Amino acid sequence: MTKAVAVVLAGLSALAALLVGSPLRFAGPVAAVGIVSGLGAALIAAVIALRLRVPGPEMARAGAVALALAAVACAAICGIGLVRPYSTESFRLVTAPDVSIAGQILVPEGKGPFPAVVIVPGSDGSRPVTRDSQFGLYRANADLFARRGVVAAIYDSRGSGQSTGDRSTILLEDRARDAAAVARWLADQPGVDASRTGFWGISNGGWVAPLAARLLRSPTFLILVSAPATSEGLQRQYEWAAQLDARGVAASDIQELLQTRWQIWSYLATGEHYDDARSAYDAATQRTWWRHLDAVIHPRWLNRSYVEDSSSHDDLAWFREDMRRDPVGVLEQVSARTLAIYGADDAVIPVAEAIERMRRAADAFRMPMEVRVCERCGHPLLELGIPPRFPRWYADAMIGLIES
């Protein structure tokens, strides 16, 4: 029994040590778990080595000693992971009526002044998004910046974690106002070089960060990671099509589903062509694929009075404001130097289309933008492997943009 416990603890310490070598070490108290489990495994293994009384004790003792040394090494590696050359400070800002944003800044050691970046998180459906969401990905990026001499701000999204507000009705402009407020506050902090401030945004944050930059009108850089270059409506259609394909829905049926859903959405966005939308909806109820559409369309939307009297509710705001907003059009209005980074293996967004749209826009409008691709990365821009890691050139590319 004791040997089994030792093996389990050693395995936990090894796993924790692997995670310390990965950005995902910020998912929680991984380093502390590694230290405790590693030392526990070492202690039990040492006891086994001293008390073992079985045939072939020398070999068994040698194995136990090796286990003890490996566990101590894992604990040491995890301990090194706790050493961070920066301090953290908490903040809370009122960004709108009944909305306050809570977060932290990571301040490098030294005198400064330092450049500064606001980490703009992505979304997670209807679930809360905090500074430690996505297995610590936002904190991992903040840590990367702070280790390279850049003050980094991370925060809980509106209505999530310690931030207040209603996240059920939040729109991209709301998120942008929150991010811009954090950037304004950050630029005024002692030790921050206000002339070198900007945004880092991932996924949904790739829509939000340019909107925040447009509100701020003074950021010097934008770093967009896995940013959809299409409207939010088209991105949702892309994700839905991928889900339908995974369920085995025929390609022709998927196309009809997408067209019908977009026709209904367009009516909700404009209030026009009600009869066409209603006819498409009624016809869809007779199709073999109806159940897929029924899962994403609320029947109340097809009640003419519901849309005409939309002042009494606000669940149509997304269709009217965010569904068709072109993110590339927003970027054209921002003069900040921009670095757009994509993972070639990203299965969340139409990555090839996004890369092409960004490059075309940069050329056509002479935007100060560089587009880079990580060949072995997915949506979070981590190289797939054990442990997952940021690309080797990732930090240098971002710091180079900030300092250029």
Distance between the termini: 60 Å
* The first-level CATH class name of the largest domain: Alpha Beta
Provide the low-confidence segments as ranges.
none
Gyration radius (Cα, Å) is 25 Å
- The percent of residues in helical segments reads 40-55%
Number of domains: 3
Shape: globular
Examine the secondary-structure arrangement and name the CATH architecture of the largest domain. Answer: 3-Layer(aba) Sandwich
Q: How would a textbook summarize the main sheet?
A: 8 strands, mixed
Brief synopsis:
The protein has 404 residues and is α/β, with parallel strands linked by helices.
Feature tags:
404 residues; alpha/beta; Rossmann fold; 3 domains; 8-stranded mixed beta sheet; 15 helices; 15% strand; globular
What does this structure look like?
Helices cover 49% and strands 15% of the residues. By secondary structure, the protein is an alpha/beta fold. The chain folds into three domains: 2-81; 87-230 and 326-403, 3-Layer(aba) Sandwich (Rossmann fold), CATH 3.40.50; 233-321, no CATH class. It has an eight-stranded mixed beta sheet with strand order 1-2-4-3-5-6-7-8, sandwiched between helices. Strand 3 (114-120), helix 4 and strand 4 form a beta-alpha-beta unit. Helix 1 (2-20) runs parallel beside helix 3. The longest helix is centred in the first third of the chain and has 25 residues, at 57-81. The model has no long low-confidence stretch (mean pLDDT 86).
